[in-house]
Amino acid sequence: MNDWPDGWYRDEPRQRGSGQVPPTAAGSGRAAWPEQPSAHHAPGRPAPGRATPGRREQPGPGAGRRRRFWGQPGHHGRRIALIAGAVVVILILAVVTSYFYLDSKLNRSVALPAYSGQSAGTNWLIAGSDTRQGLSRTEQDLLHVGSDVGTTNSDSLMLLHTGGGKPVLISIPRDSYVSIPGHGMNKINAALGFGGPTLLIQTVEQVTGLRIDHYMGIGFGGLDSVVNQVGGVRMCLPTALHDYDSGVNLPAGCQSLNGAQALAFVRDRHSFANEDLQREQDQRAFLKALLSKATSPGVYLNPFVALPFGSTAASSTSIDQGTHLYNLVSVALALRNPQTGTVPIADANYPTENAGDAVLWNRSEALQLFKALQNNQPVPANLLSGTQVG
Asked: What would the mean pLDDT of 298-323 be, rounded to a whole number?
């Protein structure tokens, strides 16, 4: 029998002690129980979510507190920022100090001759001399360079032009038969021996019509040291090279050349049918590989490699009196990927009365090449032979 009054819910408990249940709210059909505090609420305190009249709720522990810099309080973040700023300042000072240190070590021993012509852009004359100065007899034997200390002819000669778009690197054959001021007709490499870099520069300016703005020369020992400091230079050879005179002994394939191997490679000419003409291409390819390595992040971002390399290069390279370190950096970047070629040749075995067989230029094409450079214009593609390792 149902003992619940009509309108009462059976799921509501009876009121203790009275046998009655509270009446339902009007129209709700449900008992009007007073609102109860939470079972876990402490007596004497307002229930959560309900404000006590005349009293403002206080924020709980940690409420409204902002966390900064990985959750640390603000003063810790400022401390880390100060440390980071100090590190940046120290790095900047180190770079600036290193720059002026290396700039002070540059061997500015070359005087540029006066030039009265017109020539656009910037031209560098890069010479590799066959001087043995500074090398001991043991080092001369190791590098296979002979012992003729008094010889100062140019073993390689290149002209770099910048300022007219893509840089242009042109090899000037060392046996080029030209007029040397004050010495008549002779092979161009003899100019260095006759009157040093200044006469060599004057000779190149006279036969090309280009103003030489900067000069850079390096000897046998300097090249060996620079390559070793940079940690070797990677070259890929299509064939094996073996030559007694230069000392080259390299297998075919890609490999890293140390200083002695690199010097032997750029001096080798007897391994090729066209001798000097192929050697000039190898010299251009090696120079590009060397400077690509020297300007790579693995070198210039590593102070233990960059500083010794820069110091060795600065002290072993002869430059003109107006060249600074930033000039050398710009030329290094230009030599990473220039257009390349050799002065157009009419006869690679031209017989002479006073200098033996020499190289005779194709005069009309050579003038066309130098005229384009002189006016800062693109060089015709047919005058750029490119570079291919022998």
From this structure: 87
Q: What is the pLDDT of residues 284-294, one digit of tens each?
A: 999 999 989 98
- What would the two tokens of residue 301 be? 């971002």
Residue-wise over 182-203: b if at least 16 C-beta within 10 A, else e? eeeebbbbbbbbbbbbbbbbbb
**Beta bridge pairs of residue 45:** none
> Of 176, 178, 124, 150, whose CA–CA distance to 335 is shortest?
124
- What confidence tens digit (pLDDT) does each residue in 247-268 have? 899 999 999 999 999 999 998 9
The per-residue pLDDT of the chain, averaged, comes to 80
Lookup: tokens for 248: 């080259």
If we measure between CA atoms, which residue out of 127, 161, 114 comes closest to residue 318? 127
| Pick from 366, 390, 388: nearest CA to 379 | 366
More confident: 58 or 390: 390
